[in-house]
Design goal:
Arc Repressor Mutant, subunit A; 248 residues; 12 helices
Length: 248
Amino acid sequence: MGHVGLALHFRKLTGLSEEGLSAASFIRDVTKYAITSKNTAAAFLNEMTQYGVISQQPHPSDKRVRVIIPAPATLEAIGGWMALHLRTLDALDGGGRVAWYLESRPSVLGLLQPEIANGLLHDETIRNPHHAFAHFMWMNSGFLVTERLIASLESDLEAGGRLPTSLVSAAELTASFNLSRSHSARKISEAEELGIVGWSGAKGRSKMWVSREFVSGFLDIQAAKLSIIDHVVAVHRSATSLKQFDRV
């Protein structure tokens, strides 16, 4: 949902669209791509406003419409997200993407993000991930829980399709995420029943493990996302090079 909203904002900002980010345009696009329901989309906007992620301002000419503007910290965060992924790609092949991005930023960010968002919306791997990975996505802060599991992996050596983590308890897994204890406990119990996570010995007294399917699902998502970002950046770097050549 965040990428959908930012894409609407950036398309207006860069002149690619006359329509910007509003409650109507956001809810329309979120439901168009079957991301969530209208009520959930509206609730998301309200929560983002409450926490200062976005602000709502009167439209300059239409009093019926309130324009939504991402906060400076939000724009800084998406800029950091972009740089982080480009550094990851550069670490794979030394492609120099992040240097190009930082030199061109902020003007290029508004061009890259909508195209990346479109790629994410249409990628089958990202929209329909493996069930082992998708399980935690149906809870609040689900991706943070998933990333903590991945970050806690101690080894890629598996035993019976299980990879060990440094975590011991469910409370340790969800600490600081402000989750309902009953809801998070239920989701973790379901994951245990499905063979996604478990304990090497006594539950809560031994180290947790995660399944190979869970880790593979996470890696598939990351690979698909990086491929989309790489393609979009390559197209814009090529266009930049052509413009520089023309000036010469």
